């Protein structure tokens, strides 16, 4: 990399902590779930869909709504439809909310009287308060970024790769944006952006990023050589 690139703005890794807040709203059946999805805050929709990927475990379904519908209501067909909704395909939470409602409304046309959850298995709507702060780790070039991404906390990867797609409102992520706009690595940015956040766990995302950046760093070393 040339001197101009070396002097580029470093990437500052951020860390985030999520605090769950109850909305005091709950649903005992699919009709109640539908009505509350239509009226709860965007923060609640975000928590139960986009922030599903921050959970430390992988379940059969890909959002909390689908999981409850499949496990507590035993409406597996609807659960699969809800689970197929990729929250990162939408430019806003409002559009995501509409997609969830459409799937449920269409289901009602064939099954107008779905099951009711057993007592104690109602769906509880929550919100998340996210506190963001510097992780005190910076990368000035790809080599430093590669070292950092190997060991940075999973919550940091979530913040920069998953949450950023909603925060930036452009479907991109902080890593790809930095590669493209600061380092001028458009092809690398394109490859990173192409990683589907909907199809991988956070650790899976980490592995893909490491593989892509490591390949680029090694290729640059072969071309330019390594100084003694």
Question: Terminal Cα separation, in Å?
Answer: 16 Å
CA-based gyration radius? 21 Å
User: Kindly state the mean pLDDT as a whole number?
Assistant: 88
Low-confidence stretches: 1-6
Instruction: Tally the helices.
Output: 11
Q: Main β-sheet, in a few words? A: 2 strands, antiparallel
Mass-distribution shape:
elongated
Instruction: Walk across the major sheet and give the strand order.
Output: 1-2
The count of DSSP E runs of length 2 or more, i.e. the number of strands, is 2
Work out the count of structural domains.
2
Q: Secondary-structure element order, as H and E?
A: HEHHHHHEHHHHH
Proportion of strand residues: 5-15%
Helix percent band: 40-55%
- Helical/strand content category: alpha+beta
Features:
alpha+beta; elongated; 2 domains; two-stranded antiparallel sheet; about 230 residues; 11 helices
What would your notes on this structure say?
The structure is a single chain. A two-stranded antiparallel sheet has the order 1-2. It has two domains: 3-15 and 133-224, no CATH class; 18-127, no CATH class. Residues 1-6 have low confidence and may be disordered. It has eleven helices and two strands. The chain starts with a helix and ends with a helix. The protein is of the alpha+beta class and 228 residues long. It has helices spanning 3-6, 30-39, 42-48, 64-71, 76-83, 93-110, 142-151, 154-167, 174-181, 186-193, 202-224, and strands at residues 11-27, 123-139.
């Amino acid at each position: 990399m040339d001197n101009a690139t070396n002097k580029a703005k470093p990437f500052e890794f951020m860390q985030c902590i999520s605090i769950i807040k109850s909305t005091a709203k709950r649903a005992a059946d699919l009709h109640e779930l539908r009505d509350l999805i239509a009226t709860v805050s965007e923060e609640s929709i975000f928590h139960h869909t986009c922030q599903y990927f921050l959970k430390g475990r992988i379940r059969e379904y890909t959002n909390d709504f689908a999981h409850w519908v499949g496990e507590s209501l035993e409406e597996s067909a609807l659960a699969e439809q809800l689970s197929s909704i990729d929250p990162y395909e939408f430019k806003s939470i409002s559009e995501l909310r509409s997609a969830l409602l459409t799937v449920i409304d269409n289901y009602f046309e064939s099954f107008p009287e779905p099951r009711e959850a057993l007592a104690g298995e109602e769906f509880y709507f929550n919100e998340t308060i996210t506190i963001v702060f510097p992780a005190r780790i910076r990368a000035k070039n790809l080599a430093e970024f590669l070292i950092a991404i190997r060991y940075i906390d999973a919550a940091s990867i979530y913040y920069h790769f998953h949450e950023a797609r909603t925060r930036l409102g452009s479907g991109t992520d902080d890593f790809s944006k930095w590669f493209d706009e600061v380092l001028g690595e458009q092809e690398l940015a394109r490859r990173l952006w192409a990683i589907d956040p909907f199809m991988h766990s956070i650790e899976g995302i980490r592995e893909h990023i490491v593989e892509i950046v490591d390949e680029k760093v090694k290729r640059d070393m072969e071309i330019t050589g390594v100084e003694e």
